[in-house]
Design brief:
The structure holds two protein chains of two kinds. Chain A has one domain: Orthogonal Bundle (Arp2/3 complex 21 kDa subunit ARPC3), CATH 1.10.1760. By secondary structure, chain A is mainly alpha-helical. The model of chain A has no long low-confidence stretch (mean pLDDT about 85). Chain B contains four helices and twelve strands. The N and C termini of chain B lie far apart (about 110 Å). The mean pLDDT of chain B is about 85. Classes of the chains: A mainly alpha, B alpha+beta. Chains A and B meet through helix 1, helix 5 and helix 6 of A and strand 1 of B.
């Protein structure tokens, strides 16, 4: 039941990302709500469910992007795998560690996406590249606690959260 | 009755006398103004007390009424917002339709329904697809100028790459001097006009139009205005920064050019 609710949350976040995030852009950069949902899933569910959610979120993101199809479908499960692997070695229940984690993942995601575009021969000015990488990562990190709180309410119910 | 009259006879008489004495006070402004000035404060206090007392007595009624009015205001606000939105939409569509009627081009009016999910692409999704004769490669405009190009078509939706996307290149002309160049996007609010050569004939505020050299974009469609001219870091060529004629971040309806 919780997983179904989480899938519904991902669809909701995807709709917000596609329709409303244009109005909340900061320096032309929007927060990556789907990446946030993938990180939350990695922190909340077991390996199989988290992977499934990551692939689902990646497919949604790729379906509405105009770039090389499958990049997000590939990257999202990679982040999930990395988080779950990392959680075996270190304790990631601390809020600050979670924030650092999302910031690093968002930055890596942006660097990889931008680098792929540059590798494909697209001319992206260095200023735009850095702006998307830095502001995009910070913006995603700032939005993360809010989405995390909402998703906790959805997954475990408002009382437990 | 007569006993009662006798008892209050003196009081009635005094009252009558005071009434007669006060008569000029009410009819003559010279007396009335100081009288009212003296009474102003006590009257004000009494009015305030009466109002507060009324508020206490009718508290429940007022509370219910207040709640009802609040709901009514919310509903009216919602309706007003809806009407305002309809009004703005009507204005935009009217502009596009009048442009469509006046233009020689065959155009399909469409609505933007979603935007790109990441910051690396400037793409929008429209509500018309192959069922409405839209094909990949068709150019997309608004009444203000060039907006982009159709890159992917499904039955009922199409994906449009806007001109500020880094993957786009449009062959252009400077309207005044016919200087050729190539516009490409920067993922920001500005476009770059490249391949201008060492000493191009280009000035600030020059209007940039499509050259029609590649078949994708019809000739003469406005792209934007030159706002800055800079030299390449290698100092071998000049490039210009162009402000798009269309506000790409607020695009809501577009016209697809059918070749």
């Amino acid at each position: 039941m919780n997983k179904i609710k989480f899938f519904a949350l991902i669809i909701g976040l995807a709709l917000i990302q596609l329709i409303f995030m244009e109005y909340f852009k900061f320096f032309g950069v929007a927060a990556d709500l789907l990446l946030i949902s993938v990180v939350i899933a990695s922190l909340s569910f077991r390996f199989r469910s988290a992977m499934l959610i990551a692939v689902f979120a990646g497919l949604i993101k790729d379906a509405f992007a105009a770039g090389s199809f499958g990049l997000n479908t590939l990257l999202f499960p990679l982040w999930t795998f990395s988080i779950l692997r990392l959680s075996q070695d270190i304790d990631i229940d601390n809020n600050m560690i979670r924030l650092a984690l999302i910031c690093i993942i968002a930055a890596l995601q942006n660097i990889i996406c931008g680098s792929v575009l540059i590798y494909l021969g697209k001319s992206i000015p260095i200023g735009v590249f850095l702006r998307i990488v830095f502001i995009g990562s910070i913006y995603t990190t700032i939005v993360f606690p809010l989405i995390y709180r909402i998703s906790k309410d959805i997954i475990y119910g408002a009382k437990r959260a | 009755m007569s006993l009662l009259l006798k008892k209050f006879k003196k009081k009635i008489l005094y009252g009558f006398l005071i009434g007669i004495l006060l008569t000029p006070v009410f009819f003559n402004p010279a007396f009335r103004h100081p009288f009212l000035f003296v009474l102003k404060k006590p009257l004000g206090i009494f009015t305030l007390l009466r109002r507060e007392l009324g508020a206490m007595i009718y508290f429940h009624r007022n509370f219910i009424q207040n709640e009802r009015l609040k709901k009514e205001i919310d509903l009216l606000r919602f309706k007003l917002n809806k009407l305002e939105e309809l009004y703005l939409e009507e204005g935009r569509v009217r502009n596009l339709v009048s442009f469509k009627n006046e233009s020689d081009l065959r155009l399909i009016l469409s609505r933007v329904i979603a935007r790109s999910a990441d910051s690396w692409h400037s793409v929008v999704l429209i509500d018309k697809g192959s069922n409405h004769a839209i094909r990949p490669g068709m150019s997309v405009i608004t009444h203000l100028g060039l907006a982009g190009r159709v890159v992917e078509v499904n039955k009922t939706t199409s994906k449009i790459r806007l001109i500020n996307d880094a993957n786009i290149g449009v062959s252009t002309l400077v309207q005044r001097s016919r200087q050729e160049g190539l516009i490409s996007g920067t993922l920001g609010n500005r476009l770059i006009l490249k391949y201008l050569g060492k000493s191009p004939d280009i000035k600030l505020n020059d209007r940039i139009i499509t050259s029609g050299l590649n078949q994708t974009y019809p000739k003469g469609i406005l792209i934007g205005t030159v706002i800055d001219i800079r030299e390449d870091f290698s100092a071998t060529s000049i490039y210009a920064i162009v402000e798009p004629a269309v506000d790409l971040s607020k695009i809501e309806e577009v016209l697809i050019v059918v070749p």
